């Protein structure tokens, strides 16, 4: 009947995953908290092996730092609320007293990109992160 004819001209319904992707947060599209945690772990391994960056982390409780970074990234990527200091506040002392500059931030961003790619993140998601 008419219902069958109407059904025949309707486009097929998209799978649920595709429906979700339009409204999913960046954190969800990256793989959720587990993926963010893996990225932060690998990211800090890279940062701490970088002679230009590792001195900034001397004396830092890295487990606390990682937990802070996971909370920040998860919130920045749309899942949750970050209640810590702003980027400017968190790095002000390092900028003023230790010479942290844009080149250091570029190195950090490069390590984050590398970590995300090594964990299999798609280029479009990595671009969105950066």
TrEMBL record:
Domain of life: Eukaryota
Cited Pfam families: Bac_globin
Annotated heme binding sites: 91
Record's protein name: Group 1 truncated hemoglobin
Matches recorded under InterPro entries: Globin-like_sf (IPR009050), Globin/Proto (IPR012292), Hemoglobin_trunc (IPR001486), Hemoglobin_trunc_I (IPR016339)
Details of cofactor binding: Binds 1 heme group per subunit.
Cofactors demanded by this protein: heme
Keywords assigned: Heme, Iron, Metal-binding, Transport
Keyword Transport assigned: yes
Gene Ontology molecular function terms on file: heme binding; metal ion binding; oxygen binding
């Amino acid at each position: 009947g008419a219902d069958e004819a109407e059904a025949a001209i309707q486009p097929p319904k998209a799978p649920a995953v595709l429906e979700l992707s339009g409204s999913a947060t960046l954190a969800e599209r990256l793989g959720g908290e587990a993926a963010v945690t893996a990225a932060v772990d690998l990211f800090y391994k890279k940062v701490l092996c970088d002679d230009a960056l590792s001195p900034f982390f001397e004396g830092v409780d890295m487990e606390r730092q990682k937990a802070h970074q996971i909370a920040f990234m998860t919130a920045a990527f749309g899942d949750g609320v970050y209640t810590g200091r702003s980027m400017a506040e968190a790095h002000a002392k390092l900028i003023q007293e230790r010479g942290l500059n844009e080149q250091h931030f570029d190195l950090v961003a490069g390590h984050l990109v590398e970590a995300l790619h090594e964990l299999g993140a798609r280029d479009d998601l990595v671009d969105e992160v950066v």
